[in-house]
Please model this.
Amino acid sequence: MIFFSKNACEIVKDDISAKLGISVTNDLGKYLRLPTINRQVTKQTFKAISGRVDGKLAGWKSHIISIVGRATLVQSTIASIPSYAMQTLRLPRSLCDEIDRKSKQFL
Model:
């Protein structure tokens, strides 16, 4: 698949695509679990990160684990989920606030 800038002319896109025999795409998908950004970044762009946090928290039984154990789980796993994405991308503030809120509710 081939990706063109939104500023590229449709005729040029079609011509290049036909000559190379490659289909045109508007979404580059994900690479290493992160979206390949080719549009404006929104909270929806990173909904997978929020979903991974929800999945981790749902698997743990908070009433069985002590407060120290819960704090350790949050620090070692929940805090590390968005850190990989934050090395290369700027996450929306609302997503960071949402992850913090979920961690506090778990504690």
User: Anything to note?
Assistant: Residues 34 and 56 are 18 Å apart (CA to CA). The chain is about 50% helix and 5% strand.
